[in-house]
Write a structure and sequence with these properties.
The complex is a heterodimer. Chain A folds into two domains: 119 residues, Jelly Rolls, CATH 2.60.120.10; 101 residues, Winged helix-like DNA-binding domain superfamily/Winged helix DNA-binding domain (Arc Repressor Mutant, subunit A). Chain A is 42% helix and 19% strand. Chain A has nine helices and ten strands. In chain A, α5 crosses α7 and α8 crosses α9. Chain A is globular and about 55 Å long. By secondary structure, chain B is an alpha+beta fold. Chain B has one domain. Chain B is built from one helix and three strands; from the N terminus they run βββα. Classes of the chains: A alpha+beta, B alpha+beta. At the A-B interface, α4, α5 and α7 of A face β2 of B.
């Protein structure tokens, strides 16, 4: 099932019927090689892209030509659902690894909006989730030092991969380069290299051959000032993340089941 | 209003500079995380010293003004 990771372990979830409707809205799947631009900025769009397999990024280009990586997407992310309303993107979406995507025509989203309003609200939740993550990324760059930034990012990836069954909480794949991490965290290569060495020397985590091993998840979260509330994970998954990362920041009040 | 810490205040904690692979890394205070060439770091250090001297003189004048 192409949509199995969409909303997986989040506070909002699809009914079986809603998932089936979304599945049927997919027109086709497509593959892209690592490094390819999947959705270029400023192109008029009549489809949206659901990431099925692999990692994707959103990046913006600064006036001086430098690329800034502003989001990393995992399977289950509807990477340009906002294009349904905006009709074009103000940033590129690219393949970080070889990826498989599912393409959903906007006319199918029109049908969903008309005939399945509850499903439409759940899709809205996805874009709100993106916004919540963007707020954390702004905070990370504005307020955290280099060590905290990298620790925070690694905790976020660990929690999100845990939610889709691609981390066991202490070991997860991260097929990114130090330059990619530098773009995410606003750091030079040499700075990223130094921070990764520090994290290793502090016995918090190590990163080798595109695999991250977290030796002390609780301390890594504390170092990165990471609080997973903004990921809106199901209570059971939030507790699992907390079990791995400490329970200081877990949302105490159950979230409402509908928006 | 709450007594939450506000970010937009002058820092009283110093940044930490270190050399790494032939460049200078400045960590902190707060969200400062920058890598500079040695030349740029020295020019920044000179500029910071000059600004610090001027800031001290201004603060001193303000204190004297308050006493008058």
């Amino acid at each position: 099932m192409l949509t199995r990771n969409v909303l997986r372990n989040r506070t909002e979830d699809f009914t079986d019927e809603e998932r089936s409707v979304l599945e049927n809205a997919i027109e086709r799947t497509q593959t892209y090689a690592a490094g390819q631009t999947v959705v270029p900025q400023r192109r008029t769009l009549d489809t949206s892209t659901l990431l099925v397999q692999g990692l994707m990024t959103r990046h913006v280009h600064a006036a001086d030509g430098r690329r800034h990586l502003v989001a990393v997407h995992l399977p289950g992310d509807f990477v340009d659902l906002h294009a349904y309303v905006l009709k074009q993107l103000d940033h590129d979406v690219g393949a970080l690894t070889d990826v498989t995507v599912a393409v959903v025509p906007h006319r199918a989203l029109n049908d969903i909006q008309t005939r399945h309003p509850q499903l439409a609200r759940r899709l809205w939740f996805l874009t709100l989730l993106d916004a919540a993550m963007h707020r954390q990324w702004v905070m990370r760059l504005a307020s955290l030092n280099a060590l905290q930034r990298v620790a925070h990012f690694l905790c976020e990836m660990n929690a999100k991969l845990l939610a889709i069954g691609q981390s066991d909480g202490q070991r997860f794949p991260l097929p990114m380069t130090q330059a990619d991490i530098g773009e995410v965290c606003g750091l030079t290569n040499v700075h990223v290299s130094r921070v990764l060495r520090q994290l290793r020397e502090m016995d918090l985590c190590s990163w080798r051959a595109a695999q991250v091993v977290v030796h002390d998840p609780v301390q890594l979260a504390a170092t990165g000032l990471f609080a997973p509330d903004y990921l809106y994970l199901k209570p059971a998954m939030a507790l699992r993340v907390a079990g791995h990362m400490g329970d200081a920041h877990v949302r105490r009040t159950p979230l409402p089941q509908t928006l | 209003m709450s007594d939450e810490p506000r970010f937009l205040k002058p820092c009283d904690a110093a940044g930490q500079a270190s050399a790494e692979d032939g460049v200078v890394i400045l960590d902190g205070p707060d969200g400062v995380a920058i890598t500079m060439t040695a030349d740029a770091a020295e020019q920044t250090a000179d500029s910071l010293r000059a600004a610090a001297r001027q800031a001290r003189a201004e603060a001193s004048r303000q204190r004297d003004g308050l006493r008058d």
